[in-house]
Amino acid sequence: MMKTLLKKNIPAILLLLLGAGLIVFGLSSGQATSVMNKAIRICMECIGIG
């Protein structure tokens, strides 16, 4: 039963591992702060402060 469950979910498992790997890569290269700074700027522009 476990083998058939794994065979059916191989694409989902691969995508999950790929996503986790890309998150780790982004965090290790410092992209989190860059994304947060851009998000803050966009929010400030949307509400008319920045």
Structural key phrases:
50 residues; mainly alpha; 0% strand; elongated
Description:
The chain is mainly alpha-helical and 50 residues long. It has one domain (2-46). It is 84% helix and 0% strand. It has helices at residues 2-8, 10-28, 31-46. The longest helix has 19 residues, at 10-28. It starts with a helix and ends with a helix.
Range of helix content: over 70%
| Average residue-wise pLDDT | 88
Taking all Cα atoms into account, the compactness measure Rg is: 18 Å
Please report the number of helical segments.
Answer: 3
Order of helices and strands: HHH
Q: What's the quaternary structure here? A: single chain
User: What percent of residues are in strands?
Assistant: under 5%
Structural category: mainly alpha
- What is the number of strand segments? 0
Instruction: Report the end-to-end length measured between terminal Cα atoms.
Output: 57 Å
**Cα shape:** elongated
Q: Catalogue the unreliable spans.
A: none
Q: Largest beta sheet, briefly?
A: none
Provide the domain count.
1
How would you summarize what this structure contains?
The chain is mainly alpha-helical and 50 residues long. It has helices spanning 2-8, 10-28, 31-46.
